[in-house]
Amino acid sequence: MSAVSLPSPRRVNTAYFLLQIWFWGMMAAFSGYQTAIVLGRGFSSGQAGIFISLGCLAGIFSQPLLGAWADRHPDVPLKKLFGGCMLLALGFHAVFYFARPGFFGTALIFLALGALETNSYPLIDAMSMQFLNAGISVRYSLGRGLGAFSYAIVSVLVGQQARRFGVESALVTHAALVVLILAALAVFPAFSSSAFPAANMEPAHSPLYILKHNPAFTVMLGAGFFGLMAVMPIVNFLVNLVNDRGGDSGDLGLALFLMAASELPGAIFFQWLWKKTNIEKVMLASVVFMALKPLLFLSCRDLRLLLALQPIQMLGYGLFTPGNVYYANENVPPEDRVQGQSLKMVATNGLSGVIGNLIAGGIIDRSGVDAMLLFCFFSGAVGIVLAFWAIRLRKRKKLLDIPPAGGCMP
Description:
The protein is mainly α. Helix content is 78%, strand content 0%.
């Protein structure tokens, strides 16, 4: 591999930072306010849960298919797949904004957005990991932290925007941010498989093969699934929680800001913690704090205390997000790493979003937000148990991989 084949690390990191900043800003403008938007259109919390779950469900099916296709066609740059997804998603958002569809039309649009927009994030992870594995120093954790800070800034700005112009105006901000994503994508260097021949040593395997032959990875996916079920319903139904504690759309924006802004120091703390310990312990710590979050929220009855507790996101989801990417990269063979990033997204943001939001929306309609928080806590407790199990499996595999004293590897 010649040095001339490598793009500039500054160019890779700058473009990567911009993608993270604009992507998570875009997600804040829609996902942070999607429940408020559909509630404002006359739908119930249970129906909002169905819409959000459908979006997650679409990603469950589309992400492995797209990841498998990308692994089998390394000659097609991932940035082209990502750009195509974003352009199509922009079109569906336009229909959602101008047409104001009913229940079934809204359900179909959320399905499409889940397959195209939410589905596209693993491609950003895979794009950065391609260059990291090729020898370029990609500052993934910092980029993810900047994305979280962008989510925070956009959340609070859109909260004030919604208070003045109505919550539907969030969709206009979303569209503008998609355009900025496409601009950042234009300067992101395309990864060339011919320039990096070592990146494709073996044929890619099926998702079932990956799960079967990487048991620690598979069990940690389960830990992430239950851990995310402890926090994702809180984010998607934060408007219900804020309203229950006496707040409004402006307070929702502030809550989202405090929650997401804490992920930037969390991303910086991740790098230190990872070097001091190992990725397995980082994953365990993140799941513990994700389980603790709903328990703390359940105990607070005052809006000000609810806002003050939002930074606990730093030690839960803030550590889990970069940790999950590095864990997949370390525990999946090189030829399957795009699928590995897709599988971890399916198990966490995908499956946990489908099941968690469906259950949470129904619980809120029947028993209120406190009952939802109790469900989230017990989900997180299951995640802690699975994280411990995954660590034991990983230790066992490391012991089996050590050759006997005085012997040699076959």
